[in-house]
Amino acid sequence: MSLCTELVLDITYHQVKAPLFLVAQDLTLFCICVNVQSQPASLAAEDISTNSNGPKQDSLFDDDPEDLFAEATEEVSLDSPERDVLLSDGPSPAITPITPPTSVITPRIGHTHDDMFTHSSFDEIEEEEGGDSFDIHISVSDPEKVGEYMTSMSLFKRSEFAVKRRFSDFLGLHSKLASKYLHIGYIVPPAPEKSIVGMTKVKVGKEDQSSNEFVEKRRSALERYLMRTVKHPILLKDPDVLQFLESSELPRAVSTQALSSAGLLRMVNKAADAVNKMTIKMNESDAWFEEKQQHFENLDVQLRKLHTSVESLVCHRKELSVNTAQFAKSAAMLGNSEDHTALSRALSQLAEVEEKIDQLHQDQANADFYLFSELLGDYVRLLTAVKGVFDHRMKTWQKWQDSQMLLQKKREAEAKLQFTNKPDKLQQAKDEIKELEGKVQQGERDFEQISKTIRKEVSRFEKERVKDFKTIIIKYLESLVQTQQQLIKYWEAFLPEAKAIS
Amino acid sequence: QRKESLRSVSVDLNHDASLLIDIPDALCERDKVKFTVHTKTTLSSFQKPDFSVPRQHEDFIWLHDTLVETEDYAGLIIPPAPPKPDFDSPREKMHKLGEGEATMTKEEYTKMKQELEAEYLAVFKKTVQVHEIFLQRLSSHPVLSKDRNFQIFLEYDQDLSVRRKNAKEMFGGFFKNMVKSADEVLISGVKEVDDFFEQEKTFLLDYYSKIKDSTAKAEKMTRAHKNIADDYIHISATLNSLAADDMTANKKNLEKLSDLFEKFRKVEGRVASDQDLKLTELLRYYMRDIQAAKDLLYRRARALADYENSNKALDKARLKSKDIPQAEEHQRQCLQKFDKLSESGKKELTSFKGRRVVAFRKNFIEMAELEIKHAKNSVTLLQGCIELLKSN
Question: Where does the record place the PX domain (chain B) (predicted)?
Answer without folding.
Answer: 1-160
